[in-house]
Amino acid sequence: MAFGWRASGSTNAELVDNLNRQGLFKSERIKEAMLAVDRGDFAPANPYMDAPISIGYSATISAPHMHATALHYLEDVIKNDSRILDVGSGSGYLVACFAKMIGPKGKVVGIEHIPQLVQLSINNLKKNHASLLENGVVKIIEGDGRLGYEQDAPYDAIHVGAAAPEIPSKLLDQLAVGGRMVIPVGRDNQEFLQIDKISEDKLVKKRLMGVIYVPLTSKEEQIGHRRIQYV
Ligand code: SAH
């Protein structure tokens, strides 16, 4: 059995329980958030398997253990009234988890560049979390996530769900002092980085682990290319 599949379950609760057994949750907060958000609302197939699943348009909903890991590294900067930016929000799963970790004065902005995925995430969220969209705690924006979303900046936490060739400077600009970004960086060899903004001109970067993410790129690069095979 492939690594990462060990946590698979037959229900959302079983999946979360198995992730917990693997020691992925530093605190109850992340476990509670993942229990409150049924991955079945967001993954089109095998939702309780610990693996990434295609959501179309060359995108995937990330594997549950990667979602848990991202939440783990951001947890310390997520407070009741935090503002959070999720770049490449895809299925909308993580946006919902972030929203469960903040209160009504906090805000989660998901930014996604494929319009059909923006719609998919809104439909997914409406299944069991419509109130988050109605009360404005969650907002999904169609746009280029490499530019961030100036209107609601600065953000206490920024999660980037696709691998950038280099760290987008606009995202660093939109990070609050005291805030943290986690981002996969690189092309062939990707590293998951944690970047803390200590003061207006001081960033502290830490390498967390090697990862495999789809690229943070242009819409054309992601879906425009058709592979032509000559036989
Ligand atoms: N975290 C999400 C999606 C991960 S896949 C989930 O688990 O469901 C990465 C996503 O990043 C895809 O949906 C892809 O369309 C999006 N993406 C890639 N480049 C982007 C860009 N420049 N701006 C916004 N979204 C982008």
From TrEMBL:
Signal peptide: none annotated. Belongs to the methyltransferase superfamily. L-isoaspartyl/D-aspartyl protein methyltransferase family. PANTHER family: PROTEIN-L-ISOASPARTATE O-METHYLTRANSFERASE, PROTEIN-L-ISOASPARTATE(D-ASPARTATE) O-METHYLTRANSFERASE. InterPro entries: PCMT, SAM-dependent_MTases_sf. GO terms for cellular component: cytoplasm. It catalyses: [protein]-L-isoaspartate + S-adenosyl-L-methionine = [protein]-L-isoaspartate alpha-methyl ester + S-adenosyl-L-homocysteine. It comes from the Eukaryota. Keywords: Cytoplasm, Methyltransferase, S-adenosyl-L-methionine, Transferase. It is found in: Cytoplasm. The lineage of its organism: Eukaryota, Metazoa, Ecdysozoa, Nematoda, Chromadorea. CDD domains: AdoMet_MTases. Gene3D superfamilies: Vaccinia Virus protein VP39. GO terms for biological process: methylation. Its EC number is 2.1.1.77. This is Protein-L-isoaspartate O-methyltransferase. GO terms for molecular function: protein-L-isoaspartate (D-aspartate) O-methyltransferase activity. SUPFAM superfamilies: S-adenosyl-L-methionine-dependent methyltransferases.
